[in-house]
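Fold this: acetate--CoA ligase
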Amino acid sequence: MPASPLLAATMLACARIGAIHSVVFAGFSAEALKSRILDASASVVVTADEAVRGGKTIPLKSIVDEAVGGCQCVQRVLVSQRTGAHVPMTPRDLQLEQAMSEVSDSCAPEPLDSEDPLFMLYTSGSTGKPKGILHTQAGYLLYASITQQYVFDYRPGDVYACVADIGWITGHSYVVYGPLCNGATTVLFESIPTYPDPGRYWEMVERLGVRQFYGAPTALRLLLKAGDHHVHKYDRSSLATLGCVGEPLNDEAWVWYHSVVGEGRCTVVDTWWQTETGGISIAPRPSPDDSTPKPGFPMRPFFGIQPVLVDDQGNELHGPNVSGNLCIRHPWPGMARSIYGDHGRFMDTYYRPYPGLYFSGDGARRDGEGHYQITGRVDDVINVKGHRIGTAEIMIHEWLKQQW
């Protein structure tokens, strides 16, 4: 589905009745959607007639029709209206808004255990086969809400804008679940940051009075190149916190984000976390007010997170000025509980490489002050069923399995 209030409502409706939702990015192909439907044995698909992105339309219903053609598990396709375009409807399809008008607007919540599944979200694995990362009810919601509150210094009445697509974990945790749990006004961003011009984000900030803004380094670097005039023509005085996520933010972009967008007065929080962690794991905030964030450094572990750096043999690296494979020592509320339908793969990927630790797949450096900097993926060497082999070997292994 496109980024829309109806998408958020659909997620929350699933949570209310105890159904596991799996949001798929609207830009994926029919084949990618089909693989996720089949892996999850999904019985209902919710989509829209079309999506609008950067002035172009994406034929979502056609993509879904192609995907579900070979999926016997799908019993119903619900189709919402985004553009009003005419789309073919089959006996399996229902027009969503019409179906909603024919049922009661009251629905008692289903009582669930704290460890019952809430949602799954697919992330590509090192082998190329998507992994259905499974998150549960209470722990995930607690972690999403508390990180949104403390990392971004959210206060009642603030307008909070995370511009991530809801199809990714950032959209789940920091567009929908975290902000709404805290009672925040949360902004849904549709389209791309350069349409109709590179001032799109900052026009939104002025128009809505956004106090916290959470974006991606790739977009920030693109906007930096477009020139400062797209920033300066909009009032950004409402901004207090500028966040970024997705990859390390390089020094040039960090300085531009802080000095140009934030006018030198806004805190920049460069965050590190993963689909599997459920929420932010390392960030400059919360911290004392006189603490200055470092460009390129997420810096500090969040409450309850205990980072560990180990070498390839699993030996812990102590002290300052060391680099190694980034692991986490103790459990935390937002951690994923499994890969849907393949718990063995879950253990092989995250817990068997370094017994007793969660292995993130990232490398990191701890500096002289004990602050952490992410150095990039270390998946060129991965532990699979106790054997350390290279990514190329894994790809060959998977290809051979498919042939036989």
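Residues 137-151 form the longest helix (15 residues). The domain at 118-313+334-342 is CATH 3.40.50.12780 (Rossmann fold).
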